[in-house]
Design goal:
With 166 residues, this protein is mostly helical. The protein is built from 7 helices and no strands. It has a single domain, classed as MFS general substrate transporter like domains (Growth Hormone, Chain: A, Up-down Bundle). Helix 1 packs antiparallel against helix 2, helix 4 runs antiparallel to helix 6 and helix 6 packs antiparallel against helix 7. The radius of gyration is 17 Å and the shape is globular.
C-alpha cells in the first residue's frame, strides 16, 4: 500500500487532505486489525493461522474491488482502505510479532536469549525482500501498464500470501 498516495494523486486526482485521510485510514485499520484479530485468535483458537488465513482471503476480495475504484467512489475507497489495513496489516502484525515470540519460546531455542533477535531479523528481513520485489513489480506496472494491473498484481499477492497459512 506504499503506492496508495501516488494512486490517489495521479489516478483519482485527490488533493493533499484526501491523500492524508487515505494514509491515516490504512494505519488506523492496521492498528485496529492487529488488536481485534489478535484478540479473536487468542480467544477462539489460541492459534493465528485460522484467523489469518480467513482475513487474507477476505482481503483478496477487498483488493479486487480496488480495480474498479473511480474518483467518484471516495467513501467506498476510504472504507476499503480501512478494511484492507484492518485485514492485511492486522494479519501481518499478528504473524510477524507472534511468530517470532512463538519460535523464541521453543525449548531448543529458549535457552539462548540471542536467538529471538535472530528470529525477528529473519522474519522481518524475509518480509522486506518480498516487499522490495513487490514494489518493483508495482512500479513497473504503474509506469508501463495501468493502475488496474497494479491492483490485479496486489490481489494475487494477497491471495498467494494466504496459501502458506493452510
Amino acid at each position: 500500500m506504499l503506492w496508495l498516495p501516488t494512486f490517489a494523486s495521479e489516478h483519482l486526482k485527490f488533493n493533499e487532505s484526501q491523500k492524508t485521510i487515505v494514509a491515516i485510514l490504512y494505519d488506523v485499520g492496521t492498528i485496529s486489525g492487529s488488536i481485534i484479530l489478535g484478540l479473536i485468535s487468542d480467544i477462539m483458537y489460541s492459534r493465528r493461522c485460522p484467523i489469518s488465513f480467513l482475513g487474507l482471503l477476505v482481503a483478496t476480495i477487498g483488493h479486487s474491488y480496488l480495480i474498479f475504484i473511480t474518483e467518484d467512489d471516495v467513501i467506498l475507497l476510504y472504507f476499503l482502505i480501512f478494511f484492507l489495513g484492518f485485514l492485511v496489516g492486522g494479519v501481518s502484525n499478528i504473524i510477524a510479532g507472534t511468530a517470532c515470540a512463538d519460535i523464541g519460546k521453543k525449548n531448543s531455542l529458549s535457552e539462548n536469549s540471542k536467538v529471538l533477535c535472530t528470529v525477528v531479523g529473519i522474519v522481518d528481513g524475509t518480509g522486506s525482500i518480498g516487499a522490495a520485489i513487490g514494489q518493483q513489480g508495482i512500479g513497473y506496472l504503474q509506469e508501463n501498464r495501468s493502475w488496474k494491473d497494479v491492483f490485479i498484481l496486489m490481489t494475487v499477492f494477497v491471495f498467494l500470501s494466504s496459501i502458506p497459512l493452510l
